């Protein structure tokens, strides 16, 4: 049996020049928020970031999700214009699915009685907004008056019901209903209107725009009543706005990397109360693109995927910040000296340190954030290779990496492995051969004369195994800077994708693109465990338990399969659907815990109960 012990959540997908939506759970006392990343919708508890639940049933990338007013249901939308309504707890049972618009949906909102949903976005013709009954999908109104993509919509939280929409045609439109009909339109903004929100008491609504202005309107009539003061306003586009629960303040976030809190007076003018600035590096990644005022929490999301949580009652207190991956986490390694620490890297060049029981424990700062293909680590040193033909050695301490050294090997690295007992030796495989490195020098570049797809080096640095495109394993002995071929093993029927020595170096395991894995005895070079053919797609990664009794494989078919070496392969344990889109990284932290990472940008820790 296996059970999920921990999930380290992905961060919201962000896009330059667009706001993103995070939504809070309206249930009293609940501090969970919703956001989307790829095809996943994530429910995250702000008080405990390890308390995560992921809904992964969308067929297309999800864009926005919201809790229903009673907190029992979630409506989530995707880029194909589909809205799915599902249960917020336990199994996330699907209640309904509607095709709402013909293009992507950018915003949706429930009516306060939980019976209607309004959605806006992109579409063909004039249909950029639709409101419908949540149980039957029947339309409840006509929404004319927009000519381009509608970026945001809001439902008045009190009767009489109103809907207000805003978009890329610089308009803010006001509708009365139900059934909803066009009432009036404002053209006070001179650029895209990014977000519109009603105050919780329904008396006012505010629209914010890329022209750096925020305008406040009367909630019943839709007339303009005031603006946010421009004296100390934002210097960049305002992407999102959120009201305080008492309807007296709003928070806005902007491309100028700051969040501002405004007092909204009775006459509708907004005075600046406080500016919150982030402590980031000051690069593009610190632009703030999303915000939420949820109970006592002020949440901001930056373009680089950092979530900061301020306490509304004490704004001078430093925020709690945590981050995570936003893209496919392609490699994973556990530090031998401290098996509770996991390092993960995603292909966009982010390396993150995680600690079991705590979660996020810092990013590894790098001078160049180039894309990473392979990652290996020994004690306090991290070695990465990427698409820029360079192999980097970086200190594992999250703060100091200025002394990183790199080496250009002249062609693109395919695989990277370190000799664990003498970690200054590294073997990097390229398209046609291998490169042997000692610390930051190339010892030798060897053309092997066949297409190399995977490689590994023995912990003592005396033997290497190279996997070929034709499925053969070539074993070489290493002395000094030369490789001598010792044997060729044939068993695989597809190109080799991964090779790993067992920790006691008595065996090694290999996996291929034809979904098969094999465990070999190192001394006799005979097959130890065969028929490991239970994946339905290519094997991406493979890991050994520290006592060398168990081997785990991860595949594109989203499963992790765990085999015991001394039992037949049919006695396997399977973790189905470990990662949406495929498993790409795998590592054991102890004999009964395995960490996996994948396409969904999440990292999960599984406990194994062996029979």
What is this entry, summarized?
Helices cover 0% and strands 53% of the residues.
Task: Compile the SSE list and pairings.
Elements lengths: L1 E7 L14 E2 L7 E6 L2 E6 L2 E8 L6 E6 L5 E6 L3 E6 L6 E6 L5 E6 L5 E6 L7 E5 L16 E6 L6 E6 L4 E5 L4 E6 L6 E6 L5 E6 L4 E5 L5 E4 L10 E6 L5 E6 L3 E7 L5 E8 L10 E7 L2 E6 L4 E5 L8 E3 L6 E6 L6 E6 L4 E5 L3 E5 L8 E7 L2 E6 L3 E6 L9 E4 L6 E4 L6 E5 L3 E6 L2 E7 L4 E6 L5 E6 L3 E8 L2 E9 L5 E6 L5 E6 L4 E5 L5 E6 L6 E6 L5 E6 L4 E5 L8 E3 L7 E8 L2 E6 L4 E6 L3
Antiparallel strand pairs: 1-55, 2-3, 3-4, 4-5, 6-7, 7-8, 8-9, 10-11, 11-12, 13-14, 14-15, 15-16, 17-18, 18-19, 19-20, 21-22, 22-23, 23-24, 25-26, 26-27, 27-28, 29-30, 30-31, 31-32, 33-34, 34-35, 35-36, 37-38, 38-39, 39-40, 41-42, 42-43, 43-44, 45-46, 46-47, 47-48, 49-50, 50-51, 51-52, 53-54, ...
């Amino acid at each position: 049996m296996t059970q999920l012990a921990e999930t380290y959540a992905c961060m919201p997908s962000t896009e330059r020049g667009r706001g993103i939506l995070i939504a809070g759970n309206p249930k009293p006392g609940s501090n969970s928020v919703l956001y989307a990343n790829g095809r996943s919708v994530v429910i995250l508890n702000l008080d405990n970031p390890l308390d995560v639940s992921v809904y992964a049933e969308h067929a297309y990338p999800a864009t926005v999700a919201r809790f229903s007013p009673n907190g029992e249901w979630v409506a989530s939308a995707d880029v194909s214009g589909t809205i799915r309504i599902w249960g917020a707890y336990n199994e996330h049972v699907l209640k309904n699915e509607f095709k709402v618009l013909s293009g992507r949906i950018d915003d949706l909102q429930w009516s306060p009685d939980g019976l209607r949903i309004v959605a806006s976005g992109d579409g063909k013709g004039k249909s950029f907004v639709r409101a419908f009954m949540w149980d039957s999908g029947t339309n409840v109104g006509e929404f004319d008056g927009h000519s381009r993509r509608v970026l945001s919509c809001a439902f008045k939280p009190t009767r009489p019901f109103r809907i207000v929409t805003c978009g890329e045609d610089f308009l803010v439109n006001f509708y009365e209903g139900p059934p909803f009909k066009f009432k009036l339109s404002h053209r006070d903004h001179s650029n895209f209107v990014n977000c519109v929100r009603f105050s919780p008491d329904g008396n006012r609504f505010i629209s914010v725009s890329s022209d750096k202005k925020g305008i406040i309107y009367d909630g019943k009539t839709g007339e303009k009543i005031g603006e946010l003061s421009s004296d100390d306003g934002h210097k960049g586009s305002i992407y999102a706005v959120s009201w305080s629960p008492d309807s007296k303040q709003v928070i806005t976030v902007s491309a100028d990397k700051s969040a501002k809190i405004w007092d909204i007076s009775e006459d509708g003018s907004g005075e600046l109360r406080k500016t919150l600035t982030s402590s980031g590096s000051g690069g593009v990644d610190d632009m703030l693109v999303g915000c939420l005022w949820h109970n006592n929490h002020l949440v901001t999301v930056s373009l680089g995927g950092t979530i900061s949580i301020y306490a509304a009652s004490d704004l001078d207190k430093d925020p709690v910040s945590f981050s995570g991956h936003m893209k496919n986490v392609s490699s994973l390694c556990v530090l031998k000296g401290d098996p509770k620490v996991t390092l993960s890297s995603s292909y966009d060049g982010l390396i993150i340190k995680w600690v079991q029981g705590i979660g996020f424990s810092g990013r590894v700062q790098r001078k160049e954030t180039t894309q990473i293909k392979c990652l290996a680590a020994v004690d306090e040193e991290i070695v990465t290779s990427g698409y820029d033909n360079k192999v980097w050695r970086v200190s594992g301490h999250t703060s100091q990496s200025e002394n990183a050294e790199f080496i250009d090997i002249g062609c693109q690295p395919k695989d990277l492995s370190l000799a664990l007992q003498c970690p200054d030796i590294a073997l990097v495989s390229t398209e046609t051969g291998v490169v042997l490195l000692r610390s930051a020098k190339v010892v030798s570049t060897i053309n092997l004369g066949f297409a190399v797809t995977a490689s590994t080096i023995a912990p003592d640095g005396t033997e290497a195994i190279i996997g070929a495109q034709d499925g053969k394993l070539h074993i070489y002995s290493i002395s000094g800077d030369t490789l001598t071929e010792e044997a060729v093993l044939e068993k695989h029927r597809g190109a080799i994708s991964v090779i790993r020595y067992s920790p006691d170096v008595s065996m090694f395991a290999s996996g291929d693109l034809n979904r098969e894995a094999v465990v070999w005895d190192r001394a006799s070079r005979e097959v130890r465990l065969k028929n490991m053919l239970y994946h339905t797609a290519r094997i991406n990664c493979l890991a050994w338990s520290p006592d060398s009794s168990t081997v785990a494989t991860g595949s594109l078919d989203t499963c992790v399969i765990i085999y015991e070496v001394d039992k037949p392969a049919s006695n396997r344990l399977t973790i189905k659907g470990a990662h949406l889109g495929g498993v790409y990284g795998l590592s054991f932290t102890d004999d009964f815990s395995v960490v996996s990472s994948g396409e969904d940008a999440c990292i999960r820790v599984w406990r194994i109960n062996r029979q």
